[in-house]
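Weekly puzzle thread! Below is a chain. First person to post its structure in token form gets bragging rights.
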Amino acid sequence: MIERTACPRLGCDLPDRLLAVRAAEGDEDSFAVLVQRHSRSLLTLARCILGNPQDAEEAVQDAFVSAWRHLPEYRHRAEFRTWMYRITVNRCQTMCHRRPPPVPLDTVAEPAAGDAWSQPARTAEEDAAMAALFRALAELDAGQRVCWILREVQGLPYKEIAHVTRTDEQTVRGRLFRARRSLQEAMGPWR
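Winning reply:
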């Protein structure tokens, strides 16, 4: 029997590797620390891929349930964080394939004319720009979108992205190049 990990502090000092080993042995407290530690970045990743906060929460929850079930099989070839990114990306891609294609939206209406410094007009413009970015991301090939999110939003290095996407670094670089070029074209009016 393993000793229970009492880690009530949010920033537990134990490394992910040790927590994962303990969690694989049935220590729910260790797994709770891992969930607490990684849920925010995984939610951000899922939101960027899926474009919907509710779907993102469902995907991350499913990813953690899957991780809990498969922890005894986890061999620590990659960092726990990378392993969770892979599970989450796979879950998001499965959700994308299952849902009906999105209805194309017309261009966003121009913000109402008024004082250039008025907060509502600025907020509306920022919202429109974000909506345009999400539409542009949705237009990308799934592989390009995932690589771009992992690099630009999550800040992962190329090697880790390659591991998450099960490709090589050269493929990651190519996908990022094409994604950046497409997004630059799509977001040109917002510069």
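Puzzle host: Confirmed. Bonus trivia for everyone else. Helices lie at 16-24, 28-50, 53-70, 80-98, 119-139, 142-153, 158-165, 169-186.
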